[in-house]
Design a protein that fits this description.
The complex is a heterodimer of chains A (about 110) and B (about 120).
Chain A (H helix, E strand, L loop, with lengths): L3 E4 L2 E4 L5 E7 L5 E8 L3 E8 L6 E2 L7 E4 L5 E5 L8 E8 L9 E2 L3 E5 L1
Parallel strand pairs in A: 2-11
Antiparallel strand pairs in A: 1-3, 3-8, 4-5, 4-9, 5-6, 7-8, 9-10, 9-11
Chain B lengths: L2 E5 L2 E5 L4 E8 L5 E7 L5 E7 L5 E3 L5 E5 L4 E6 L8 E8 L10 E2 L3 E6 L1
Parallel strand pairs in B: 2-11
Antiparallel strand pairs in B: 1-3, 3-8, 4-5, 4-9, 6-7, 7-8, 9-10, 9-11
Classes of the chains: A mainly beta (about 110), B mainly beta (about 120).
């Protein structure tokens, strides 16, 4: 039982390059989330997927797209990376999005955009 | 909208000493409050939560927090620090009223260092 896994662990991009961050969970959770963590700012929600086939914007969605590929997988895409997107990205999952359900987090992807 | 402020970005204690990490919140309705811990190179893990009922909440690893409405605080404490407690701690707040994931707000974090 791996929980929430993320790939890659580290990535360095040049401005304008694109990439996709991958996330998978094996807990049969319905809801999945993408956060970014910046120094002095805590975690901020980028996008979430309340259930398979649905996605919704979070607090900071600009510059990102997401795909809920199936119940297990939720990917985050940067189409044209900018230095402001340098951050640590966390994927999380929970049983449901409605009402509070504990979120389980992956180990993170550390992204640097030069 | 709710918000949370963690006082002190870094706290250093000696092993065996009291740990006190401060969190103050702002919410127009009764909040749900959380503490998360992040060990190096790992994701966040829920330490404890307050929703309703008893205001003193006990969590994992000997941590506890007390919801004080009059002080709008939810400070995290542990009587005796252990080396393994060294981590970053995040306070978070949300509203139970028509809760959506967008409503969760995290503090900036407090890095706890434990000296031998």
């Amino acid at each position: 039982n791996a929980g929430v896994t993320q790939t890659p662990k580290f990535q360095v991009l040049k401005t304008g390059q694109s990439m996709t961050l991958q996330c998978a969970q094996d807990m049969n959770h319905n809801s999945m989330y993408w956060y970014r963590q910046d120094p002095g700012m805590g975690l901020r929600l980028i996008y979430y997927s309340a259930s398979e086939g649905t996605t919704d914007k979070g607090e900071v969605p600009n510059g990102y797209n997401v795909s809920r590929l199936n119940k297990r997988e939720f990917s985050l895409r940067l189409e044209s990376a900018a230095p402001s997107q340098t951050s640590v990205y966390f994927c999380a999952s929970s049983e449901w999005a409605q009402g509070y359900n504990e979120q389980f987090f992956g180990p993170g992807t550390r992204l640097t955009v030069l | 909208a709710q918000s949370v402020t963690q006082l002190g970005s870094h706290v250093s204690v000696s092993e065996g000493a009291l740990v006190l990490l401060r969190c103050n919140y702002s919410s127009s309705v009764p909040p749900y409050l959380f503490w998360y811990v992040q060990y190096p190179n790992q994701g966040l893990q829920l330490l404890l939560k307050y929703t309703t009922g008893a205001t003193l909440v006990k969590g994992i690893n000997g941590f506890e927090a007390e919801f004080k409405k009059s002080e709008t605080s939810f400070h995290l404490t542990k009587p005796s620090a252990h080396m393994s407690d060294a981590a970053e701690y995040f306070c978070a707040v949300t509203t139970p009223v028509r809760f959506t994931p967008r409503d969760m707000r995290f503090g900036a974090g407090t890095r706890l260092t434990v000296k031998p």
